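Listing S7. Sequence submitted for prediction.
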Amino acid sequence: MKPDDRLAYRRVMTIAGSDPSGGAGVQADIKTISACGCYATSAIVAVVDENTVGVTGVHPVPVNFVTGQIRSILDDVGTDAVKIGMLHSSELVRAVRDTLDCYPGVADIVLDPVMVATSGDPLLESDAVATVRDVLIPRSRVITPNIPEAELLLGCKVHSQADLPDVARELSRLGASVLLKAGHLTEGVVEDVFYNRETGEMTRLCSPRIDTRNTHGTGCTLSSAFASFLARGCRLDEAAVKAKEYIAAAISAGAAYAIGHGHGPVHHFHAFWS
């Protein structure tokens, strides 16, 4: 086969920390990206000592080694979209932004502003919240905060489902479109909202609330799915809908499984085996 006749992968790079239990972080990202039909590459920013019960420790990878991984990927394999997860320090946030700025063609960046684990353990140094808000969000095309993360970014409380559209619009003023996740609310239906900053349109993304403890890594999974569908050429609104459908099905399928003693993972490969 001639080189010009070979097929091309749709590529997604994840920049995130590891999770040895496999439910979140880079491990969940790679599973999701693969399940959504893309080729996954990764730049690991931290080795995290955690399981389904909680986080025991975080061992940061040196910043210059993180940026080296990013350059190695982009200079060789390239990427069609980027998912950014846990960046634990202001120094790292700035370095990732500066490195991505060297590649202006990399535009489809989905930022999951990870600040707190499902178990409640903090994953971000306190001074880094403002740096994520002021430095990295404007470089991203989409952010996917949950309610506690939205509250930290805006410095306000979210009280009910009715607040979400206004909160999403306010978050978009930071420089990106917003998929605001409603999982921390208590309504029987989970109604996330997606505000497309580029068109001014609001989309409601509804799914039944599943009674399950297996919600470890849901944010990582959703943002990776969003990046994957952008890499495959979907419009923003279409990618948001498809990502929501994917995570809803993964949560539903994963609820039937028992793994670990805490918050188990979703079923990333629900479309392939059960």
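Caption to Listing S7: primary sequence and predicted structure tokens for the chain studied. The chain has one domain: 9-254. The first strand starts at residue 11 and ends at 16.
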